Amino acid sequence: MIVTTISGSAQVKKGLGLYTDRDVYVSGETLLAKIFNSTDNPSKIAYLDLVNQFGTRISGVSMEVINNESNGFIQLPDSLGTGIYLLRAYVKDTAEKLKIIRNIWISNRFDGLSKTKQIMQLAETQTIQDEITQQINIEGVEPIYATNSKAAAKITINSSLLTELSGNLMVSVAQTEPSFSSSSFLSSSNQGKDGLTEKKGIILSGTIIDKNTSLPASGATVYMTIPDSIPGFQYYQTQNDGRFYFHLENYYGSIKAFVQCFPSKSTQRLKIKMDELFAAAGNLPAFSQMPIPEDFKTNAAREIDVVTFQKIFGQDILKLKAAPPKLNEAYPYYGIATTIVDPHLFIDLPNFSEISKELLQGVKFRNYNNEPTLQVINTAVREYFSEMPLILIDGIPIRNLNVIKDMGTQDIKRIEICQIERFYGNLRFPGIVAIYTTKADYSIIPESDQFIQLKMEAIQLQSELADPNIKEPDIPDLRQVFYWNPSAEPQENLSIKFNTSSLLGKFRVVIRGRLKDGTMLLAEKQFEVK
Amino acid sequence: MTLKITKIGLLFLVWSFAQIAYAQQPNNHWDAGKIKGERFIPYSSYNGFPFLTEDWNLGKIEFTNGEIADSLSLRYSSYKDELIYYNRDIWTMITIDKASINRFTFTDIDGRTRTFIKQYFDNFAKSYRFFEVLSSGEISLLAYLKVILNTTSAYHDDNGNLRNMAYDHSYQFYFYAPENGYTLVRMNLASLLSKFDKTEQKPIKKLLRKNKIRIQDQYSFIQAWKAIEKEGYKIIF
């Protein structure tokens, strides 16, 4: 029997926290988040996802864990209905046992609160309690500011507290909604399986199924290719459980990954089943309902207008930072080409058979009785390999020669040939023919159950608040977040500067941190823009 | 009887859980970097020996992409200046791509750990070479353990074929400093002394005498250099 508890487990596991720039959002907005991860977990990837009150996952991101902390953002879809939503933060290996959950409110940009009669609040009584500290002073903040004015705050941290702090501070200045406040709690379970620890990066996993028996297929070879100027390539040989695993190390932002499998017996027909990147819904917390306060309704309507205008004026709140420099491979896994041929430089040839005859020395492509064969010479022994070489189309391995037989010089940008017996780990390639197409859109590769194209988000790129950059005086500055630094290095004196926007309302300066003993600290100061 | 059935049942349960737990584990070293290379084609058989060591040695490779592969059966080819490893899974000797290697170490039959680094040699015959690090510091003592094919008088090899070539040692030793480059040195006292200022040569001789070091081979040379280096004498490149 699996006993799952959703409770205030702050006593069970201290020092975990999930915080956002605000508590109330409008669909289409960007939510900024900071996670204080477990200090005893070596995972390098933390996940943050958004689920609705019924447990359906809406979106999510994977973030890099640096010094047991991570930060990132979630783009809230425009289509989200009005209501309460849950943010879940976890690391993959302990996802079934421990998640940090935070509730937020999202108003639909088009419907507003017209259909919403009640507001749902978490019924959790034991939430993660932040200790309000007097040892962090926020000075220099006026109680009232004018719109579009300069402001500054001086943060002084007691020197004894500095030695007790673990990691960085989160410093933010953002609009606040007095009638709704979010809270975080730990969803913990003593049961559940431990997953693989993502020490290097995101792990893509799945199962290879034998289509005839519907059982996991052992002995299948699974390839994963990530196209690039130098393609990334990994392989895995399945065991009895049919499972495979790949590491996406140092990949940031949107990437394309191609997963394909090849059976150990030619008669076997396989199917790839990828695992979900994000954790299962799990148990949901209890909610209590209460009537919507009038203030909340008014403020929500105003925020909807603000976000609508932000969209109209194209005021992006974030700008992405460049990905950290990647230690690139100097050459592809299939080796440095013995010969590179650019068919465009030669006479137009209608098919690959002609190309191989006329342009590719040491490559024998024959298409007798519509059964194409391809062989490459092994220059080391001056004989043709008896087996088919590794054939790549834009970096993706293929085994069906019918795919290339009709390719003419117009379709091919470059052909790289390796006329040696190459090895990559335990894989052996009797020569290599790598064809780079002019279209480079992978459309030539036939889709099948043994070949999956994945368009996915790898580690989220780091971001920072964008400058307002408003060129015309008539256009209002509609920022709700004036300052956001999720990784401020603790110092005795910290000073922050920000500009208020054209928005009126209540704002607050918030500083959050974690002590070495796991206590979560909070210091805040409110001000008003009139 | 009931007790027996219960015991069997319990054993089955334990086995089932073990199977489940086992099934969750991926293959060993599944996420380790994969070694890139090509099949090693055996060299022609001549007198002499093209490899540095007679046996395969267990060693470690540090690759240019930061990956480290350990417990590999390695053999350094002095003839081709390349590193060969024996892939036990597929029973194949593979010449590892030189471009992918940063450094490697292995333990030889005498139990000595030998470290090789890949460095660009910018003197005659410019290329990336594997140098054995005999002594590392501000100035390193490096050995390029090259074997070359020389023409010899005709002889019959083990298979009765007539040959006139043999593998010969052509080891070269260098002092190396990143800012000054390489300077060739031979494994004798005169060559070592020639690397220092004339005024320092006498005290260096005295120092070696005092430390009872007589340069006779590579090992006593290293010992001598370490003693000199400790005293702060600087090589003139």
Report the biggest beta sheet of chain B as strand number plus sense, adding barrel if it closes. 11 strands, antiparallel
Strand percentage of chain B lies at 35-45%
- Overall mean confidence score, pLDDT of chain B: 89
The biggest sheet of chain A, with number of strands, parallel, antiparallel or mixed sense and barrel status, is: 7 strands, mixed
- Write down how many β-strands of chain A occur, each being a DSSP E stretch of 2 or more residues: 38
Tell me briefly what this model is:
The complex is a heterodimer of chains A (530) and B (237). Chain A has 530 residues and is mostly beta strands. Chain A has 2 domains: 4-192 and 280-323 and 461-529, no CATH class; 339-443, TonB-dependent receptor, plug domain (Ferric Hydroxamate Uptake Protein, Chain A, domain 1), CATH 2.170.130.
Provide structural commentary:
The complex is a heterodimer of chains A (530) and B (237). Chain A is mainly β and 530 residues long. In chain A, the strands form ten sheets. In chain A, strands 1, 3, 5, 6, 8, 9 and 16 form a seven-stranded mixed sheet that branches. In chain A, strands 11, 13, 15, 35, 37 and 38 form a six-stranded mixed sheet that branches. A five-stranded mixed sheet of chain A has the order 25-31-32-29-30, with no helix packed on it. The longest helix of chain A is centred in the middle third of the chain and has 20 residues, at 294-313. Residues 1-11 of chain A have low confidence and may be disordered. Chain A has two domains: 4-192 and 280-323 and 461-529, no CATH class; 339-443, Ferric Hydroxamate Uptake Protein, Chain A, domain 1 (Beta Complex). Chain A contains four helices and 38 strands. In chain A, 7% of the residues lie in helices and 45% in strands. Chain A is elongated, with a radius of gyration of 28 Å. Chain B contains four helices and 13 strands. Chain B starts with a helix and ends in a 7-residue tail after the last helix. In chain B, strands 1-5-4-3-2-6-7-8-9-12-13 form an eleven-stranded antiparallel sheet. A two-stranded antiparallel ribbon of chain B has the order 10-11. Mean pLDDT of chain B is 89; it is low at 16-23. Chain B has helices at 2-23, 189-193, 198-210, 218-230, and strands spanning 36-39, 57-63, 68-77, 82-87, 92-96, 101-107, 113-121, 127-135, 140-144, 147-156, 162-169, 172-177, 181-185. Chain B has two domains: 38-185, no CATH class; 187-237, no CATH class. With 237 residues, chain B is an alpha+beta fold. The A-B interface holds A 193-194, 196, 200, 234-237, 239-241, 243-245, 247, 327, 329-331, 333, 335-336, 380-381, 420-428 and B 23-24, 26-27, 30-31, 34-39, 41, 64-66, 87, 89-90, 92, 94, 97, 99-100. Strand 31 of chain A pairs antiparallel with strand 1 (36-39) of chain B, so a sheet runs across the interface.
